[in-house]
Amino acid sequence: MYMIRALDIYKNFGHLKVLKGVSLTVEKGEVVAIIGPSGSGKSTFLRCLNRLETIDKGMIEVEGEIMVQNGPDGKAVYSDENRIALIRRKMGMVFQNFNLFPHKSVLENLILAPMLVNKVPREEAEKKALELLEKVGLKKKANNYPFELSGGQQQRVAIARALAMNPDIMCFDEPTSALDPELTGEVLKVMKDLALEHMTMIVVTHEIGFAREVANRVIFMDNGIIVEEGIAKEVIDNPKNERTREFLSKVLRI
Q: Domain of 86: which CATH number?
């Protein structure tokens, strides 16, 4: 069974056609990196997978449960909100701008959703949170506030916060794009560790080296479609499509 199956996804913003029939399947334990130029639809597609954006047409299935599919008129029809809420809990989301609650401590950022959504007792939520903070190397920062942390530290807290909900799938939307180069490595290390633990991951990224090293598959998107996909090293080191070669030559400066 696929962890995620998205078929023929279309998404428009007014007259702007952002996704034009994108399909993707992700297997358990697989790391899929989505690369491509800005404006190609990468982040929109990722957001559609967990209903941060709605789609106009297509089908999305998460661990065998259909979130949205085409109705009789060919337009997307979503399942009821309660079912969607349960499906979305399977997916952790990490954004490029951290999105931490500034008025809450690091620990409080991690325990809030498990307590409110999953009804986890506070003591249990705090124990899990501290374990996750140790995992990302920030246990000593549990009582600090986001403004007291570097960008790299804030993003590691954001990853720990997503993991606190025990997701089956982790989605990363350009998690290092807001970071200075020297802070990028500490975030990528946490993501590499997750990959080694066989966490299912979909990563929208400009970090081509990370994609080559960690991803099982690379998807290259441009102008709202998937132009090329395949084994990471093959797509990056030996792209078949001219548009892929052009993009990578600019990014890698070769």
A: 3.40.50.300
Separation between Cα atoms, residue 163 and residue 252, nearest integer Å: 32
Secondary structure element (H or E) that encloses residue 152, with its range: helix 151-163
What's the pLDDT tens digit per position in 66-80? 999 999 999 999 999
29's torsion region: left (phi>0), alpha (psi -120 to 50) or beta?
left
Please report, in angstroms and rounded to a whole number, the separation of the first and last CA atoms in the chain: 39
Cβ neighbors of 135 (< 8 A, separation 6 or more) are 160, 163, 190, 193
Please give the residue range of the domain that contains residue 38. Answer: 4-252
Residue 246 pLDDT > 60: yes
Task: Specify the number of domains making up the chain.
Answer: 1
Give pLDDT, residue 178. Answer: 87
> Which of 121, 200, 112 is CA-nearest to residue 161?
112
* H runs (alpha helix) in 27-137: 42-49, 81-88, 106-116, 122-135
pTM above 0.90, yes or no: yes
Closest by CA to 110, choosing from 100, 123, 96, 98, is 100
